[in-house]
Amino acid sequence: MSQCLVCHESIAVVSWVSTILIKQENICYRCKRELHLIEGHVCEDCGRMGNFESRCTDCLRWGEHPYWSKYRVKNRSIYQYNEGMKMILNQFKFRGDYELYKAFEAEMRKVFIRDFTKIDLISFIPLSDERLYERGFNQAEVLAQLITSNAVPLLVKKEESKQSKKNRQERISTENPFILLPHIHLQDNHILLIDDIYTTGTTIRHAAQLLLQEGAKQVSSLTLIRS
Ligand SMILES: [Zn+2]
Ligand SMILES: [Zn+2]
After folding, report:
1. Domain range enclosing 13
2. CA distance linking residue 28 with residue 8, whole number of Å
3. Ranges for the Phosphoribosyltransferase domain (predicted)?
């Protein structure tokens, strides 16, 4: 009998056959029902679902931006942001429930294989030292480990800014919160950055900007959630 990683209820196994043929589930159907996978037509840049031709209005704006238009990033996410996901994210991030991340392994791998080819390097969005100390682990790094045991740290977060309290315009114009680690050589690499959530796309673009300036060929991102 296994336990749901989200609610810790037992997951009933239907029969002997199912335990042999089907990969062991680690999230129960009640919790699964609360989560909404991103499926069907998505924005070719940010991976959000919706009724637009190829790019959503946010990405069209990024594309027209005098500065940011040269740092185009393809993002794909697994789940939509909803109440169920909000609850899980809190549990994951703030209560330090490290084990919970395993619940997303299968879906992370599936989307990685389906949507990304020719990736040379997998990295993750860093936390500041202060936040890392508080939390005990970097959720983005933990998510990266679901798809590779060779995720490489490339960036450092300068300091904890109060990003979430700023509006979109302020966030776009703020200085880069990251710096590149020394002795990083990225010549012609396609880098995949992992993070927990894609909201405005500013975080990913700041990271991508540094990597592209350092010689990376392309930067893409895979996030658990598209809000
Ligand atoms: Zn559950
Ligand atoms: Zn978009």
Report:
1. 1-33
2. 9
3. 137-226
